[in-house]
Write a structure and sequence with these properties.
The protein is an alpha/beta fold and about 270 residues long. α2 crosses α4 and α4 runs parallel beside α5. It has eleven helices and eight strands. It starts with 11 loop residues before the first helix and ends in a 10-residue tail after the last helix. About 40% of the residues lie in helices and about 15% in strands. The longest helix is centred in the C-terminal third of the chain and has 18 residues. Bound molecules: 5,10-methenyl-6,7,8-trihydrofolic acid (MHF), 3-methyl-2-oxobutanoic acid and magnesium ion (MG). 3-methyl-2-oxobutanoic acid (KIV) binds next to β6. 3-methyl-2-oxobutanoic acid binds next to β6. Belongs to the PanB family. It is found in: Cytoplasm. Its main location: cytoplasm.
Length: about 270
Amino acid sequence: MSINKEVKRVTTHTLAKMKAAGEKISMLTAYDFSFARIIDGAGIDVILVGDSASNVMAGHETTLPITLDQMIYHAQSVIRGAKRCLVVVDLPFGAYQSNSEIALASAVRIMKETGAHAVKMEGGEEVVDSIKKIVSAGIPVMGHLGLTPQSIYKFGTYAVRAKEDDEANKLRKDVLLLQEAGCFSIVLEKIPASLAKEVTESLYIPTIGIGAGRYCDGQVLVMHDMLGINTEFKPKFLRQYLNIFEQATTAVQHYISDVQSGNFPNEQEQY
Ligand SMILES: Nc1nc(=O)c2c([nH]1)NC[C@@H]1CN(c3ccc(C(=O)N[C@@H](CCC(=O)O)C(=O)O)cc3)CN21
Ligand SMILES: CC(C)C(=O)C(=O)O
Ligand SMILES: [Mg+2]
């Protein structure tokens, strides 16, 4: 299948084997070529071109405003930088909820115009028909349950989901429906660790958690959060590995003062 044999690509089948072997799956978001190159080169299994681009790239309050065209632009940039990992693209709000034909058309546009390997969509029972249609067309689908940010105005808050029995029971059913519909993996966002453990054990497809505890088959974070580019967002589940905001601010301040003092450029830095 692969014409370019330089590197062995992670596929949805790799992830299935990893779950079977008890190997944890690492996933991070990326939205552009340069960061995709860093993350892929570091050895990540999966890059998610998340609709969180709406927040961290465009500065919106929620994920709702980002369009399919804008997601396609981000995915095209990421795919040029990602040589080894699996690249999954979020279907944005409005690109799949109306009916399964619109959902398929949106997924086809992503596959055709970006070269990405899979799509992700939020929801359970409500989107099962769309998932089946997309999977039948040969497009791998990742599910997303628990806190689903495209429905934030229905929930009203970003608080932990499925703490009560009725919502937990719906999630228990939804994971099985998604698996049956053909999803290759499911993101579980901000649910109790005990529930994530239980549903992870009930599935043969891997779960990828964010704020869903240590028992998921893999973990995902938004790159800008874990690198400390975006420092306003500090939920309990986030581990920050760098503080780029602070370091970049210091670097820019040094540059400004070097320009102002005439220290930059020096003799070696001119022609
Ligand atoms: N930068 C960024 N990081 C993300 O993880 C992310 C996005 N954007 N945008 C899309 C969704 C939204 N997500 C979220 C949003 C908020 C919380 C959260 O825990 N917020 C509050 C708590 C709010 C409450 O309890 O009511 C917090 O502690 O920061 C978690 C995940 C995850 N995704
Ligand atoms: C938080 C992850 C799972 C996501 O959907 C996104 O970044 O858009
Ligand atoms: Mg998303």
